[in-house]
Design a protein that fits this description.
Layout: E1 15-19, E2 22-25, E3 30-33, H1 36-39, H2 48-58, H3 71-80, E4 86-91, H4 94-109, E5 113-117, H5 126-130, E6 148-151, E7 166-172, E8 174-175, E9 181-182, H6 185-198, E10 201-205, E11 229-232, E12 243-248, H7 268-280, H8 283-304, E13 310-316, E14 319-324, H9 330-339, E15 342-343, E16 345-347, E17 351-354, H10 362-386
Parallel strand pairs: 3-15, 5-6, 5-7, 7-10, 10-11
Antiparallel strand pairs: 1-2, 2-3, 4-12, 8-9, 11-12, 13-14, 14-17, 16-17
The structure holds pyridoxal-5'-phosphate (PLP).
Pathway: Amino-acid biosynthesis
Keywords: Amino-acid biosynthesis, Aminotransferase, Pyridoxal phosphate, Transferase
Protein name: Acetylornithine transaminase
């Protein structure tokens, strides 16, 4: 019997400790982590600098409310924005950041309609769920927000759905939950151009792709993009709950006193962790992520690209999807990898998703690929024998 709502299908063990990129269950089994707690613990576990900073803040003050000034919020906001053209609203999660983005876009534009894309994921609150392109997780919760239309990701004819009456378009640079589908550079840039032509705000959801995951602080920085609104969360405080919505300062008048708010958002503990994370994400750190990504992709291509059972390898940087044939259910692969001491994730379209901590070593990535290869080969052989 359980006292919890059974909203998650959970693996049959509990993770109780971690250090670096290794986590341990209650039986002291060690696992190499290729999940980062779903893209959160990008600097790994028990990071000494982060621990020290948060412990020092614990002894000062945990919470003050947003009714008082915060030089810490100012400091983190200044480090977070890609250019000084943006202002920041701090909240507690990716969903909340997207909720704030939708509200800002609607109020600033004085329009309501939003274009999103199939296979997108933007969160589970009513607004964020309304713009999520996954019918299965919406079942039973309708009616949701009106005025939301869905185009097809990476599809040029879908850009015709953009017209003057839209408030905003919301898009991921790489669709994470939807199957680790990378946006095509030309299409993303055409999307932005079309938004500009029609006076439509562009919201880029960097909740999963941001904070160095692809080798740049934000994935949109790989392209000639200049979003009106950007949302982040997950890796920002390496595990303390936080989210942030950055909007162009030209939109600021729509978010004046009383227009939006939160009790916990921007609290000193999470902000201290975020401040330290941002100090660690230097250009040198990001360059190391790029180098590791090159190595990772070299071995992914070499070992897995032509392997029977693998239909595609997708993503960018340290955000990778290994799409499997339907005869090899991804959940079975994940369970077999547990036995080999490796933690991985799934995404839609029978995809094995890898989001390793950014501090992982090249040799650990190569070792993980070997284990993944063994499991896929074993699963393919087993499928052939049972046919
Ligand atoms: C792209 C994207 N947006 C929004 C969210 C929602 O974030 P949270 O779970 O922090 O509310 C997620 C979570 O997976 C995400 O991947």
């Amino acid at each position: 019997m359980t006292t919890l709502f059974q909203t998650y299908k959970q693996h049959p063990f509990e993770l109780i400790e971690g250090t670096g990129v290794t986590v341990y269950d209650q039986q002291a089994n060690a696992y190499l982590d290729l999940t980062s707690g779903i893209g959160v613990c990008n600097l790994g576990y028990n990071h000494p600098t982060l621990n020290q900073a948060v412990q020092a803040q614990l002894g000062k003050i945990w919470h003050t409310s947003n009714l008082y000034q915060s030089s810490l919020q100012e400091e983190v906001a200044t480090k977070l924005v890609p250019t000084p053209d943006y202002a920041v609203f701090f909240c507690n999660s990716g969903t909340e950041a997207n909720e704030a983005a939708l509200k800002l876009a609607r109020k600033a534009s004085q329009k309501t309609a939003v274009l999103s894309f199939t296979h997108s994921f933007h969160g589970r609150t009513t607004g964020a769920l309304s713009v999520t392109g996954n019918e299965q997780i919406k079942e039973g919760f309708g009616p949701l927000l009106e005025d939301v239309v869905f185009g097809v990701y990476n599809d040029y004819p879908s850009l015709d759905l953009i017209h003057d009456e839209l408030a905003a378009v919301i898009v991921e640079i790489i669709q994470g939950e939807g199957g680790v589908i990378a946006g095509d550079a030309d299409w993303l840039e055409a999307l932005q151009d079309t938004c500009c032509e029609h006076g439509v705000l562009l919201i880029v959801d960097e909740v999963q792709t941001g904070m160095g995951r692809t080798g740049k602080q934000y994935a949109f920085e790989h392209y000639a993009l200049d979003p009106d609104i950007i949302t982040v969360a997950k890796g920002l405080a390496n595990g303390l709950p936080i989210g942030a919505m950055m909007g162009k300062k030209k939109l600021s008048s729509a978010f004046g006193p009383g227009s939006h708010g939160t009790t916990f958002g921007g609290n000193p503990l999470a902000l201290t962790a975020a401040n330290t994370v941002l100090d660690i994400l230097t250009p040198t750190f990001l360059e190391a992520v790029v180098q590791k990504s090159h190595l990772f992709w070299y071995y992914l291509e070499k070992e897995l690209r032509d392997l029977p059972g693998v239909t595609a390898i997708t993503g960018k940087g340290l955000m990778v999807g290994i799409q499997l044939e339907d005869s090899i259910p991804v959940q079975e692969v994940i369970a077999k990898l547990h036995q080999k001491g490796i933690l991985t994730l799934s995404a839609q379209q029978n995809t094995l998703r890898l989001l390793p901590p950014l501090v992982i070593k090249g040799a650990q990535l190569i070792e993980a690929i070997q284990h993944i290869k063994e499991v896929i080969v074993y699963s393919t052989v087993k499928t052939e024998v049972s046919v």
